[in-house]
Amino acid sequence: MTGVGERLQGKRICIVAGSGGVGKTTASAALALGLASGGQRVAVVTIDPARRLADALGLEELGNAPRQVSRALLESHGVQLHDGGELWAMMLDPKATFDDLVTRLAPDDTTRDEVLGNRIYAQLSGAIAGSQEFTAVAKLYELDRDGDFDAIVLDTPPSRNALDFLDAPDRISDFFDSKALKLFAVPTSIATRVMSRGTSVVFAILKRLTGVDLLDDVSVLFRSLGGLIDGFRERAAAVKALLSDPATTFLIVTSPEREPVAEAIFFRGKLRDARMPFGGLIVNRATMLDAGEHTDPAAVAAQLGDQLGAALAAKVAAGVAELQLLAARDAESIERLKAELDEPEPIVVPRLDGEIQDIEGLMALYRRLAAQ
Ligand SMILES: Nc1ncnc2c1ncn2[C@@H]1O[C@H](COP(=O)(O)OP(=O)(O)OP(=O)(O)O)[C@@H](O)[C@H]1O
Ligand SMILES: [Mg+2]
Description:
59% of the residues lie in helices and 12% in strands.
């Protein structure tokens, strides 16, 4: 059996993907913690972590760079870090990441200030950043290029479709290649003239009503963005290349339910098509039976009848029957995944007690991930 430790051997970047709510953020944090305890300098980029998990890792919303989780804090929760081990964690701030990118790619300070200070940009960047996928990979790229970490674990957004994530770099370069942008990436006067008359009238009325010349904002923004086209295009290509790098790997997380399973199968196919590296499958929150729970429910009722009375014994038996049904369903899902993903030994993690929102819980999860 191969645990997650072996699967990540020689990998610098681990992207944890999967359907919504299956445990991506929790698994990412657990992985990073485990790798750090093994002696690596690890950064984890989480996306919208649950409040308690964020608190447990000392994550703050402000600041768009990883912060070290103190060794003392980890030790106080029973986690010893091997020599060299460090855990750094951050919460992705899409808007700040996008602003950073503009700052880095702007050919000069004037362009940068024009873009960042633009009212339309504030809306536009919020919308682009709102998709989260592109900013997540952009952040990953920055961190990797800075070279401060042995390993980076990237959580992924709860996409409707995991494909959004793989397509993100293409979508951003398509946007910068778009005709509309090119058209506007010319001096203001032309851009203004190109605006249809109807649009101009709307802008003129808005200006009269609000005193704000949005048309001017639009043309200035597009002109300044024009100066960023090449930078963004190159960056998108580099980010895309990083996703297929041999030192990158994708772990797919799923729960045993029907929809996430279908999504995992679909995503595996897309990875294959895009020739992106697949590191393994984690089936999370599977129902697994304890030794005593394999007994025939009727026998359970009979055995317990004397002690508990018939009514209560019947309830316990019904509970056991339900568990067995769930376990059977989950086992079936796992078989299906094995076949469809060409993954003979997925890492199966049982549904653990309570939510996993503290260091102890994360470490317990890591042990499950590693001990397969
Ligand atoms: N093996 C497990 N046993 C019990 N609870 C778990 C397990 N794995 C994850 N959880 C819990 O499931 C919930 C969802 O997990 P998490 O937030 O990591 O999912 P996600 O895939 O990141 O969700 P989203 O797609 O919304 O980002 C959390 O409350 C987490 O504590
Ligand atoms: Mg999440």
